[in-house]
Amino acid sequence: xxxxxxxxxxxxxxxxxxxxxxxxxxxxxxxxxxxxxxxxxxxxxxxxxxxxxxxxxxxxxxxxxxxxxxxxxxxxxxxxxxxxxxxxxxxxxxxxxxxxxxxxxxxxxxxxxxxxxxxxxxxxxxxxxxxxxxxxxxxxxxxxxxxxxxxxxxxxxxxxxxxxxxxxxxxxxxxxxxxxxxxxxxxxxxxxxxxxxxxxxxxxxxxxxxxxxxxxxxxxxxxxxxxxxxxxxxxxxxxxxxxxxxxxxxxxxxxxxxxxxxxxxxxxxxxxxxxxxxxxxxxxxxxxxxxxxxxxxxxxxxxxxxxxxxxxxxxxxxxxxxxxxxxxxxxxxxxxxxxxxxxxxxxxxxxxxxxxxxxxxxxxxxxxxxxxxxxxxxxxxxxxxxxxxxxxxxxxxxxxxxxxxxxxxxxxxxxxxxxxxxxxxxxxxxxxxxxxxxxxxxxxxxxxxxxxxxxxxxxxxxxxxxxxxxxxxxxxxxxxxxxxxxxxxxxxxxxxxxxxxxxxxxxxxxxxxxxxxxxxxxxxxxxxxxxxxxxxxxxxxxxxxxxxxxxxxxxxxxxxxxxxxxxxxxxxxxxxxxxxxxxxxxxxxxxxxxxxxxxxxxxxxxxxxxxxxxxxxxxxxxxxxxxxxxxxxxxxxxxxxxxxxxxxxxxx
Length: 652
Description:
The protein is of the alpha+beta class. The protein has ten helices and 38 strands.
């Protein structure tokens, strides 16, 4: 049986109805996304980062810590964000004390000099830029450029471009479908970058290129250094003495390499991931202390580690820290700045002095955490799945010391299928998870086959098997909990967003383990996804399902929209009406079909939201609606007042 470790005087209440101080409003207002670290200043000691402001419609603002002072460099209405590849990232660069950034509203590039007001220097419009590197000697940026057509649905053209501070642009490299990570050598004489072509995505196969930069700024003939259709290259970087480093998964794991005298050298071969999938630009998992010493983070079994790497000795020296997830890092003179979190630490920005390992927290995504009495600390689980596979997950049991459930009862459990589907669930403290566990609902966050963080073989388990392997692993996790007395088998819920929404819909349509579900902007029609998706993911299903025309039959077979006659479980759908990744009609068609068949269904469409919700009021609204939905369909008491959502086909 599940124990809540409540006090003897605790209130008795059914699982799923516990009163909790972690309200939907607390969840929505409490977490400020922290992303995209950079270092700058005259001595490289200033730390820059982006903070998301849910209270300002999700605006990203650029902050800088200099000494004991934190300054906001991009006050409202500036929104430091780009939509290159739709997912963006790499939206600013630091040049000494100056900053260059992309403003989301107009796609123009702006420069901030000496703390003055931002000044634009490009035309913007249909041209987007990302992943800038400053070429100071030539008074320009080198950037990934995405040129969108004036009208129609044609895909944009991607290239590498030089963008002068006078606004003039010159294309440096074109001809591939995608580009990323342009990186200038320390003396400015060479440029490295990554490219790839349809139907690949960057975690399947990319190519690392190197070209000389001529005195006039043009490029010489590019040379292929590494990579290919079955080798994924990430994060090229130059050491201070001008040696090109990069990460490759040629061994089956994303490991560190360098180009040295024309040869490629492995720096520290091990079964660990020194990179994560390239969904967004500008990520950094390692940096240089000197010519031959790196600071790096790597992932083993879903947990991050931090270390110094002596290249000559191929030796890792652990750096003590309190985190189990490190999302990115930057290395400065004698210190490392990183974004980290753990089961009891919400994501935060920290600076670690490498001489004495003293840690200073510079910013927190949540400044006021709930008491430990309301926080569920996850267990790391591995469990058997279909065809002899082992799957992985983090399990969060219900936790609220003020309440205990009636004896002999078991909790509902929400099984989360993450997005991507190549992403990875981490165990960093998230109020959105604690919202459920503090109310007496367990959460199982599954790293199903296809997730990153466990090597290429595990990632490739989803090759051609999307909608099968991911579903099997989520079902296996739910059954594991039920078999071990950790979940009520009659109140198992599956929940997912985007690609995880397809997993959710398939689990409910083709299997009978889960009794209810929630889809956040989930995929229901694979053919429609191909027809409507943006360029970056428009061929993703070649890998996840099959190439056309062979895929046509599989699309119908695995698309829940074609099998609504088999779906009889209550569902709630959440959808941003400005979503360019999974268009709103995908959710609307499912809602209409279920409503027509008499299946209990609720729908929450959100104006002004895209792929993922940014506005505080919408984050709160969706959580309240989802909780109400589960309470109603499982016959639990609900709070008095106006229902937060209408549930069609559900008797009063």
